[in-house]
Specification:
This protein has one helix and 33 strands. It is mainly beta. It has four domains: 110 residues, Immunoglobulin-like, CATH 2.60.40; 97 residues, Immunoglobulin-like, CATH 2.60.40; 90 residues, Immunoglobulin-like (Sandwich), CATH 2.60.40; 106 residues, Immunoglobulin-like (Sandwich), CATH 2.60.40. Strand 9 and strand 10 form a beta hairpin.
């Protein structure tokens, strides 16, 4: 029984030792620029490592190291691509050591076996691959001034083609599964491209190809001159940059807030003063006022600093004012619409006023909105006319001041009657007179007012 237990313990110790040899052993590569795992799984259930050595800005050789917990014999084998297998004879053998290292290694696969001291057969084997990343070139095509060529600019996008004499191509690395050497595997080293416009954030952009032409594209070119900074980098830290100046062909204009009348801004007529701030490439201006009217300015009819337009016809929902500009290259830009509201005709009158020389309510002036013609006559209860006004300058008409016309005398305190005849700016015009009695709702055309002092 004791012998059996000792035997079991010995077996377990041997198993743990062998496992420890494998677990503690690991191929490493100093100053490698990166690493990745193989697509295949080795006999130990792990993935082998592909170490990457960038060959830019300076070429360098690869290296591999392996450390073991006990003295061992290490045998190094090189992968033969022509025969698609690891060579039978080792190119290096290191005995009675716990560590082995190989320098000046070239691209390819390497296998190292470990035979612990006192053993005749290897206990474990490690495989690693070395990818000598050649890097890539990246240079944009430019004109003599270092700018985007005219042929690469359009109203909808801008292309940034690569220099044909400096092709940009990613590299790849082919390796094999040692358990199935007839099946080549490929590590594709892709290149990512980013674009940065001025102070904007860097964004990733797609590479476009057309035959042997490679180019990057900005689908939202700016409406101002801009320096672009491009960056290209692969999976393992090789990076190239280039920048280029873009001269815009896109027009742009800022529409300033329209200047409207300070008094009754929604009562027709509504004069509007318009100004704008264009960029340097604008050649044609087209003001559209939302009612079918437009004004176009160009080189033969240069735009003034201030454009004036008057809205006459009421429209409560508003007119959509906008400005479209065009560049010499035929590109256009239209400003967001600005709503100009013109209220419907209205006529309302208070029934009392106090022309006593102080305080408010000194004049009898009906509330008038969007009327093109206006006539008012005021009578005493006996039918004598004391005031009359007819005109269309309603913004400047002050109203009745409580004096008898042509005499300047103050009218007596009491009740007075008024009649109004008016036409609105709408089409057909709203009428305010005795003929409007039948309209529903009825229009105000006359009434009485109390004069107090």
């Amino acid at each position: 029984m004791v012998k059996f237990i000792v035997f079991r313990l010995l077996c377990i110790s041997v198993f743990l030792f062998c496992s420890m040899v494998h677990v503690l052993g690991q191929l490493t590569a100093r100053n490698a620029n990166g690493k990745t795992a193989t697509l295949y799984t080795n006999t130990y259930g792990n993935r082998d490592t592909i170490f990457v050595f960038n060959q830019t800005p300076q070429p360098k050789k690869g290296n591999l190291s392996l450390r073991q917990p006990v003295e061992s014999t290490f045998r190094w084998y090189r992968f033969n691509y022509a025969g698609q297998k690891f060579e039978d004879n080792p190119f290096a053998t290191i005995t009675n050591a716990t560590m082995t290292m190989q320098d000046t290694l070239s691209r390819g696969g390497y296998r190292v076996t470990v035979t612990p001291a006192g053993e005749s057969t290897p206990s474990v084997a490690y495989v690693a691959w070395l990818y000598m990343n050649p890097g890539f070139d990246f240079k944009l095509r430019k004109d003599d001034n270092g700018e985007v060529m005219w042929t690469n600019r359009s109203c909808l996008f801008t292309n940034f083609p690569f220099d044909r004499n400096t092709p940009t191509a990613p590299s790849s690395f082919v390796y094999y599964d040692p358990a199935g050497l007839d099946r080549p595997l490929t590590l594709a080293n892709t290149i990512t491209f980013t674009m940065k416009r001025g102070i904007d954030a860097e964004i990733v952009v797609l590479l476009n190809t057309q035959g042997d032409l490679q180019y990057l594209r900005d689908n939202s070119p700016p409406h101002e001159d801009m320096r672009y900074a491009f960056r290209a980098y692969d999976l393992f830290g090789v990076e190239r940059t280039d920048d280029i100046m873009y001269r815009t062909i896109l027009p742009y204009v800022t529409l300033n807030n329209p200047i409207l009348p300070e008094v009754d801004p929604t009562s027709a007529p509504v004069p509007v003063v318009l100004t704008c701030q264009p960029n340097d490439v604008v050649s044609t201006y087209a003001w559209r006022f939302g009612n079918g009217d437009s004004i176009v300015y160009d080189a033969e009819n240069p735009p003034p600093e201030r454009v004036e337009y008057t809205y006459y016809t009421p429209k409560r929902s508003g007119y959509q004012l906008e400005l479209s500009v065009t560049s010499l290259w035929g590109c256009t830009y239209t400003t967001p619409q600005v709503t100009i509201t013109v209220d419907d005709p209205r006529l309302e009158a208070a029934n009392v006023f106090t022309p006593n020389g102080y305080g408010d309510n000194q004049f009898f002036k009906p509330y008038i909105v969007s009327l093109r013609q206006f006539e008012i006559t005021i009578f005493t209860p006996a039918g004598k006319r004391v005031y009359h006004y007819k005109g269309n300058d309603l913004r400047n008409w002050g109203g009745w001041d409580g004096r008898i016309e042509n005499t300047g005398k103050e009218a007596a305190v009491g009740v007075y009657f008024y009649e109004i005849k008016a036409l609105g700016w709408d089409e057909p015009p709203t009428r305010f007179d005795h003929k409007s009695r039948k309209q529903i709702p009825p229009q105000v055309f006359g009434g009485f007012v109390h004069l107090y002092r």
